[in-house]
Design brief:
Blueprint: H1 30-40, H2 44-57, H3 62-74, H4 78-89, H5 96-108, H6 112-125, H7 130-142, H8 146-159, H9 164-176, H10 180-193, H11 198-210, H12 214-227, H13 232-244, H14 248-261, H15 266-278, H16 282-295, H17 300-312, H18 321-334, H19 341-354, H20 358-371, H21 373-385, H22 399-410
Helix pairs in contact: 1-2, 2-3, 3-4, 3-5, 4-5, 5-6, 5-7, 6-7, 7-8, 7-9, 8-9, 9-10, 9-11, 10-11, 11-12, 11-13, 12-13, 13-14, 13-15, 14-15, 15-16, 15-17, 16-17, 17-18, 17-19, 18-19, 19-20, 20-21, 20-22
Length: 418
């Protein structure tokens, strides 16, 4: 678990990416020591009560307000926590821990720019404050500024080589950069340092899922759930894995549980929407994709999935080409890191076919093939299966293949849709 390095104050890592972490407290005051004991038992109500008493004894102590602010974070009472951190900053504006705590509160409210401002101030006051670099790393990660996030996690690890949360945070960032082998190395290290940290198992499970090692992924998600039965991300991850194994009913059960635990967890709605789509329950899928976008307007996958459904649904009454084009373009706009660019362009090309913009469809499919050689081969296989391409499956985009692609699009083909 998180280790305190200063005797009378402790920091709390953000609850981002599924990291619901308890603070650790160690102070010279009796009631604060009792708060520390209760923290280990996860009795946060009693812990806050003890800090209330400590504040009554010394109402001008920045440490006491900061400690209670961290306790309130573990209760997800972020607004109350911010009030306490503000009160801690008033008597001691040079107290880095209070800015870090307030940054964690803002981050959990998804106010990442305000969080980063506070982390910056904490680092300005204490350039060796590993927790502030770690918190800023999570904030940058949630803003999809992955390289900046990795820089901060690297710094946190340099300052504290046994800081499990930073290895885990860097692992999550590598997952977002599709560098799954590097992610697994970091999660392994995080688990070695803290074998009871559920988020590391969940992150490693995600990496295994993306590497199509589904059974290993499920083992990790099961472990994460065993350690934290209220961990929505782990249920969502296991749902994604069951969906990839085409066990859609089991996937939906897990997505339902994730949503029950966190009704604002957009990826669970997106995953459930995909499971419903695979079961041809398209109305339910559309509802879930729209809900995911409403909760998180930055969720690329939901724009792309909804665009694909509108462009390719077998029921022509559900298809909406113009909406598909707009949604696909929005997904591409949001994908600043270009981590999913070829898949998003493939969806846009299908949307152009649906709107009968044939020339744009051809050019867009050509852009996809310029990015991914294996998709040239997949497109060749598809065109051959449809009877439009008679050449070799060789990954070469020839004049013959281009003519086959044009012929297919003229009759409404969307590559990959049988």
């Amino acid at each position: 678990m998180l280790k305190c390095k200063i005797s009378n104050i402790c920091t709390c890592t953000p609850i981002l990416l599924g990291l619901f972490l308890s603070s650790c407290m160690s102070t010279p005051y009796e009631h604060n020591n009792r708060g520390n004991i209760y923290s280990k038992k996860d009795l946060t109500e009693l812990r806050v009560s003890d800090y209330n008493k400590t504040i009554e004894l010394d109402p001008k102590s920045a440490i006491n307000y900061s400690n209670r602010g961290n306790a309130l974070i573990t209760k997800r009472q972020f607004d109350r926590a911010i009030i306490d951190f503000n009160k801690a900053i008033e008597p001691d504006p040079e107290f880095a821990f209070s800015y870090n705590g307030r940054g964690n509160s803002y981050a959990n409210k998804r106010q990442f720019d305000r969080a980063i401002t506070d982390y910056n101030k904490a680092i300005e006051l204490d350039s060796e404050f590993a927790h502030a670099y770690n918190g800023r790393g999570y904030a940058y990660g949630n803003k999809r500024q992955f390289d900046r996030a990795i820089t901060d996690f690297n710094k946190a690890i340099e300052l504290d080589p046994e800081f499990a949360f930073s290895y885990s945070g860097r692992g999550h960032t590598y997952n977002n950069k599709y560098q799954f082998d590097r992610a697994i190395i970091d999660f392994n290290k995080a688990i070695e340092l803290d074998p009871e940290f559920a988020s590391s198992y969940s992150g490693r499970g995600h990496a295994y899922n993306k590497k199509h090692q589904f059974d290993r992924a499920i083992i990790d998600f099961n472990k994460a759930i065993e350690l934290d039965s209220g961990f929505a991300h782990a249920y969502n991850g296991r749902g994604n894995t069951y969906r990839n194994k085409r066990q859609f009913d089991r996937a939906i059960t897990d997505y339902n549980k994730a949503i029950e635990l966190d009704s604002e967890f957009a990826p669970a709605y997106d995953g459930r929407g995909s499971a419903y789509s695979s079961k041809h329950q398209f109305d339910r899928a559309i509802t879930d994709y729209n809900k995911a976008i409403e909760i998180d307007p930055m969720l690329i996958e939901s724009y792309n999935n909804l665009a694909w459904l509108y462009a390719t649904a077998k029921d022509s009454k559900l298809r909406n080409g113009s909406a598909a084009v707009n949604l696909a373009k929005k997904a591409i706009e949001l994908d600043e890191q270009k981590t999913e660019f070829s898949a998003l362009l493939d969806t846009l090309a299908a949307a152009y076919v649906e709107t009968d913009k044939q020339e744009l469809a051809v050019r867009t499919y050509e852009r996809v093939m310029g990015l991914e050689l294996f998709l040239v081969i997949e497109y060749q296989k598809f065109l051959k299966r449809k009877g439009h391409y008679m050449g070799q499956i060789d990954g070469i985009y020839s004049t013959s293949m281009r003519n086959s692609l044009i012929a297919c699009i003229r009759v409404g083909c969307k590559l990959g849709v049988d």
